[in-house]
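Per reviewer request, we include the raw input and output of the structure prediction for the construct analysed in the revised manuscript.
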Amino acid sequence: MGSNPASRTKFKVHSDYLNGPFVFGMKRRLALFDLDHTLISYDSGADLLRFLVARELVDAGFVDRYTEHCIEYVAGRVDLRQLNREYYALLMRYPVESLTAWRNEWREESGKHVSAAAMRLVHSHHASGDLCCLVTATSEFIASAYREIFGFEHMVATRIAMAEGPQGSFISGEVEGLLNYREGKIANVRDWLLAQGLDWSSFDESVFYSDSFNDLPLLEYVSHPVAVTPDARLRAVAIERGWRILDLA
């Protein structure tokens, strides 16, 4: 159990929650959403790489290596800082203006593959007047595409430093600040709330949607944890503790 002061009252929803807004009365609620394998069914970083490979901007072999590293990351055996260094090392030769233009093209393609169920879930929380935030270990550069796709006003993601080179600004691959990962998500969400004059006690209820056991600290911290197509370890925890389990495919 986390130390979040928000109450753990019964989490009431419509029988078909995906076709209508959540019902919580007049309570003030915080709604947090993981990205990869939660709101979307794939790894966003790998998907962007495949887009760049198709345009012959990145070597195709790196996609497989990156995917292997992601599997190790999910298992907790790869450092997120090193993963970001390796990822952006491929892209350093391109100025940020070019990368941004390609990312925006990719965003238009990716938006076509977001499930209607995931979109309805996010929209239902917005319609209920909840304070909604995308909370992901994915870098801000990549996650911002889905921030726009889903219509999030707020996002807490891994910050990557910019650097200057002969061709102008580029993405260095070095993480700035605290990793938005495991316990770091709690701290970073707290800092985001404080920047708005809020804290966890500002809310009667809080909900976090995630697929990953790595998100267990934040799932335990909120009043209403929801496992979305969870990995094996998280599924076991969710079943043991009676947490809701959803499939947004």
